[in-house]
């Protein structure tokens, strides 16, 4: 059985980009019962969103004056999908990059203005 993090084309993660992560965490914890756990991911703190002990997303530490949710979709090859997206008229908002112990990701803006991140997760160490 595969999971969203293993399935090409599946939504696998959500991030809320906002300037007041603590306020967002409190709101969603009260509204949906989400728990949070802040970890150091090597580039600063990252607050994980947990739903029934399952990690489903995060609140990255960032400054932005335009709060938004960013969905992540699992892909088979980030670099190839970025090039295909360009060919289909997308704009690349963030070029492919490696995130240690997570995987390779990029962010695109589709021709209609929709923003989405694509990710290929790293293989688990025991795989």
Automatic annotation (TrEMBL):
Pfam families: Glyoxalase_6 (PF18029). InterPro entries: Anthracycline_SecMetBiosynth (IPR052164), Glyas_Bleomycin-R_OHBP_Dase (IPR029068), Glyoxalase_6 (IPR041581), VOC_core (IPR037523). PROSITE patterns: VOC. Residues 10-121 form the VOC domain. CDD domains: SgaA_N_like (cd07247). Signal peptide: none annotated. Gene3D superfamilies: 2,3-Dihydroxybiphenyl 1,2-Dioxygenase, domain 1. It comes from the Bacteria. This is VOC domain-containing protein. It comes from Roseibium aggregatum (strain ATCC 25650 / DSM 13394 / JCM 20685 / NBRC 16684 / NCIMB 2208 / IAM 12614 / B1).
């Amino acid at each position: 059985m595969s999971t969203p993090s293993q399935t090409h084309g599946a939504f696998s993660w959500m991030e809320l980009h906002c300037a007041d992560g603590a306020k967002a965490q409190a709101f969603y914890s009260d509204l949906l019962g989400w728990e949070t756990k802040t970890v150091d991911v090597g580039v600063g703190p990252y607050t994980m969103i947990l739903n029934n002990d399952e990690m489903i997303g995060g609140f990255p530490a960032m400054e932005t004056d335009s709060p938004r949710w960013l969905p992540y979709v699992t892909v088979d090859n980030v670099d190839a999908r970025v090039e295909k997206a360009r060919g289909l008229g997308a704009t690349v908002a963030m070029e492919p990059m490696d995130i240690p112990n997570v995987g390779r990701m990029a962010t695109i803006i589709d021709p209609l203005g929709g923003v989405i991140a694509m990710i290929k997760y790293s293989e688990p160490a025991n795989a």
